[in-house]
Amino acid sequence: MKSLRIGELAPEFDLPDQTGTQRSLTSLLAEGSVVLFFYPAALSGGCTKEACHFRNLKAEFAAAGAQPVGISMDTVDAQAQFDGKESLGMPLLSDADGAVATAFGVRRKYITPVKRATFVIAPDRRIIEVIESEWSMDKHADTALQVLGAPVKR
């Protein structure tokens, strides 16, 4: 299965975040662009590094009119533990049955439940960038900011 591509419309979804609050793509986009990053497992080493990099660039995303939103097949409780331990301060969505991962074309049967992939989604639901890198944890946030026209501060 191939991931969705630039120019395609992101599928609508409605998933619980780490607090149990239902979040739809439409409601998230009401605040501006969404940088939806799929990660294989909450609290794992690589996913923690990736999510913390998004957290550390939160002000830059806000200045660019966008918000990062994490999503994995972990439970709401696991997402809550992840946020609590790392003070991520962003929505972490629980796609427990993998339906959203399947709709975005990032669900896998082997290795990890999902591919590490990030979709930069404009307020009109159009995908303006797709970032796929299993090994460069910083690439996802850095590239998303570049696409949004924001300089990356180090």
Automatic annotation (TrEMBL):
It comes from the Bacteria. SUPFAM superfamilies: Thioredoxin-like. Coiled coil: none annotated. InterPro entries: AhpC/TSA, Peroxiredoxin_AhpC-typ, Peroxiredoxin_BCP/PrxQ, Thioredoxin-like_sf, Thioredoxin_domain. Keywords: Antioxidant, Disulfide bond, Oxidoreductase, Peroxidase, Redox-active center. Its EC number is 1.11.1.24. Residues 4-153 form the Thioredoxin domain. The keyword Cell membrane does not apply. It catalyses: a hydroperoxide + [thioredoxin]-dithiol = an alcohol + [thioredoxin]-disulfide + H2O. It holds the Pfam family AhpC-TSA. CDD domains: PRX_BCP. Monomer. Thiol-specific peroxidase that catalyzes the reduction of hydrogen peroxide and organic hydroperoxides to water and alcohols, respectively. Plays a role in cell protection against oxidative stress by detoxifying peroxides and as sensor of hydrogen peroxide-mediated signaling events. Belongs to the peroxiredoxin family. BCP/PrxQ subfamily. This is thioredoxin-dependent peroxiredoxin.
